Amino acid sequence: MRSRQIWYRCVRWFADSPVSRAMFYNGAVFLLALCFFPVPAGADQQPRVALFPLAVWADSDAAGPLSQQVLALVSENFEQTCGVSVTLYDEAASLFTPGEKQRAARAAQADFALWGGITSLGNSFSIDLSLLSADSGELRRFFGQGEDPGQLADAIRGLSSDMCAAVTGRKRIEQIVVQGSDRIEADAIVRVIRTREGEIYNREQLSEDLKHIYAMGYFEDVRVEAEDSARGKKIVFTVRERPTVGRITIHKYTVFSEEEIREELVIKRGAVLNIVEIQESVNRIEQLYKGKNYHNVKVSYEIQEEKNNQADVAFTIDRGDKFMVREIIFAGNSAYRDKELRKIIKTRKKGFFWWLTSSGDLNMDQLRQDVAMLSNHYHNSGYIDARIGDPEIEYLEERIRITFKIEEGQRFRVGIVDLQGDADEFRPELEKMLNITEEEFFNRSMVRADILSITGFYGDKGYFYADVIPDVRKNDADLTVDITYIVQKGGLVYFDDIIITGNTKTRDKVIRRELDVYEQELYSGSRLKKSVSRLHRLNYFETLKVDTVEGAEPDKVDLKIEVEEKPTGMFSFGGGYSSVESLFFTASVSQQNLFGRGQVLNLQGQIGGTSSEYRLSFTEPYLFDTRVSAGIDVYDWNVDADTYDRHTIGGSLRFGYPLFENTRLYLAYTYDVNEVDDVSIYAPWSIQEMAAQGGESVTSGASVSLVYDTRDNYMNPSRGTKSTIAIENAGGPLGGDVAFTKYTGETGWYHPLFWRFVGFAHAKGGYVHENSGGFLPDYDRFYLGGINSLRGFGWRDISVKETVEVWSSQTNSWQEVIVEEKGGDKFVQFNIELLCPLFDKKAGLVGVLFYDAGNVYDEGQELFDLRPRESAGFGIRWFSPMGPIRLERGYILDPRPGEDSGGRWEFTIGTAF
């Protein structure tokens, strides 16, 4: 049939075509060969099927949609699965007889006619289709069914596959086989291909399947073969797997640790070897080094095949020399010299201490900040139109040149400054706030500061929605800038509800008492900020979120406080070696939020070589819900001094009250009983007299102190100050055997210096005198020396020494002999430290260089009658969870006979001064 049809078309083409006789003779042999020899179906054109409307036996409402659905599915499967072209007939053709349908198919030059019917009963269905050859009249029947409408598409797909084989004459795929895969399951490969058993053999689809298998990334080679079998085609996919990655080694790595480099690797051990991933790993390592300015870095790799289809990968790094910033150029600047601009930016040329200060390192983030700082400098100096371009970076033979291009523009002075809008009510107060009026030249930062000041002013008066819009107008004629602050205060806003959530242990009262704002009160921004700061200072919460949201009415806002609590109890124990205590052990149990009430309970004990101490303390921060804090301490203390032993048992009652911001007043009463024994003849006279009168004394004293503390961190501060003045009086109306008045003062200042360095300056001094009605024991006098005062000297080594001259027969000379060593009634102490975090600040490890000076003085001696003793040294501190751990070595700068100037190591766990 196919041969006759093609022959007929060829003859008709020759009859109708205006081909010349010469062309006919030249191409006759070729054309006749094409016409007489059969051409395989599908080589010259697609088979065509005339598809007639289907009869449907179902509910009347479902008949039409069901017929259209089946026709659409049949057409789609014919065209996509086996490349058969479909011609659809309208409803009128459904009444044709089989003979009429055959003739209609011929007229449409279709090869087959297809019709049939669908029966739907409930959820089940059946399909009966007839396929008639338009040429031979051969009729074939196809049948499908299902129990659920969801199976309709699968049933049509199966019928279409059967009919496709009949229409095209192509074979079905009987079997799909995967061979060569060891680690990858064959089912995983079959899932990614679209060819399925039972479908019509399609070479184009097999080509697509090859691509899909390659795309899995597991195989070096994939081949497909089609073999004829008794029932169709057998498809065989043969794969060769890529090896898996065994060991990954890195050679010649420096600058970064091996762990840091491994974090950049895309390729992983046990994964399939992938050259793309290896190359990506190479690129990432090179970018890591280039980020540290090793721009000539070269990373190579080698793959070593091993048994069991594994391969080891070795990366070798040749970092090259580091590129350093050697030139920083400013182009276009005339108002400021290069030297002045270099002080503004933080990027530095390589200096002598580059290994310590990182000068010469190129940091792109820092470079972007430098551009912003230069822009701010110009904009804050009157150059309102100044522009700083992106820095040009040139890599020149292992050196870096950076060029900042600057367009300065004209410099503008401050012109007329005015307030408009809702500013009239508070105009005098607002005008006093404006800092821009004090400036000669326009300063953008000052304008922003004025906006914040005005907004904060209105916010503290309840205008939550207050807004300030700056209207800045340049006058190019006289180079001035007029600034108008347009105030839009909005309406008064009140706090409505204060909602606290997330606290399961801490009581609402404990949180609310730290707030300086209240429900139904006018909104205040500054007092809200202070409240948040006080909540953070409690240190009860892992996270703290404070937000203001619209209330039930336009003039109300709700304050929402959401907290996530953290453990506030701590048990710690430890031990170590101290230059004061020798071997010591310490343990403590504390709860900073007892029963969720905010109370503090602490029990601690320490046993050492020269002392032991046990202390129990309790603090109520808000006594009777007032701002008065109260506390009680009970202690038992044994001290083994050089010339006597002392045992103290007692307690104290203390109160505190905040006077001002960061300033607190403390009052305390102390009562303790002291007992001395094992008193030697070299002990101070006050101790010997005490021992002669029974060895026991009672101290009853009161003290008042004022503390000002602005440190940003209590453990490891980097800025701020703490200052204390205190007066303590014992005896007199308070009773007891001991009578004295003691005055002490102390101040410590932290200030950030260059890079990460922090400077610390500390001074301390005191004076004590004996009162009538009692005596001043030596342990209440002043000593210096040791890790908490003057390092390099032994503990309490700096004291008042009473000497007499005696004749030595051995040396035949007079020699000074110490007959009494006691504490002074005055002392001064100075300490200067340079602190630097050794790693990340969060690690809490700090290096320190220090200089100490100070001395103690006896009665009748004025301060500095004696030259201060001096020492210097270095050390390391670790601000651990147990407290500061200090290891420091001090050297005496002015050694006296018998003193060791070679240095002294000191180690302790405790609180730094």
From TrEMBL:
It comes from the Bacteria. It comes from Desulfosudis oleivorans (strain DSM 6200 / JCM 39069 / Hxd3). Pfam families: Omp85, POTRA. This is Outer membrane protein assembly factor BamA. Residues 171-242, 323-409, 493-566 form the POTRA domain. InterPro entries: Bac_surfAg_D15, BamA/TamA_POTRA, D15-like, OM_assembly_BamA, POTRA. It is found in: Membrane. GO terms for cellular component: cell outer membrane. GO terms for biological process: membrane assembly. Keywords: Cell outer membrane, Membrane, Repeat, Signal, Transmembrane, Transmembrane beta strand.
